[in-house]
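Lay summary. Proteins are chains of building blocks that fold into shapes, and those shapes determine what they do. In this project we predict the shape from the chain. Here is one chain we studied, written as its sequence of building blocks.
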Amino acid sequence: MTITDPAGANNSDELAVAWRELVAAYTQSPRVDEVGRGLLASWGEPHRRYHNTAHLRDVLSHVDELAEHAADPAAVRLAAWYHDAIYAGQPDDEENSARRAEAELAALNLPPELISEVARLVRLTATHDPRRGDRNGEALSDADLAILAAPADRYVAYTAAVRGEYAHLSNEVFGAGRARILQALLKQPAVYGTPHARERWEANARRNLDAELRSLVF
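And here is the predicted shape, written in a compact code that computers can read:
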């Protein structure tokens, strides 16, 4: 199912249906809806300013846009569901999210090779640096980073929301950490790995990243 309205952060019905349709292709487990509700509850945690259900909808929408590039679009969609399933602003968030995917998808009796690929993709979002030719990794990473190419006003709102998730850090500490991330992205030959994203998003992303980097206090 295609997610068509990234702005509808408060309405989880469409997301619940999308989850059910995605997973039902692999299992008849009676726990499908239960696991989906648990995921949506996590994505809806009140401390999330950016990494919330609106972000999930955005990423799923961009996965649809990049699906032709992926070797296994279903694995990429499942990884999108889990890539920030655990979000506490800690270095092990991606690892914990991957372990949650492994446990929950195994409980739903999904194929082991699919579970392994989903977990690998979730772990990859810690660096957003897939190997060349990793078509699933490129599709997920680009979908997750599509926000970097947003119009300037939306990009500013995104950065403010991320800053809100780290309100416990001083401007100096946050700025230094954020600068390292931005500099690493700008040093890459390309921010995006898929031809579609490089053609349509790369220039805007680099413009936004450079502007944010120059605005940071650290």
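What the prediction tells us: Confidence is low (pLDDT under 50) at residues 1-10.
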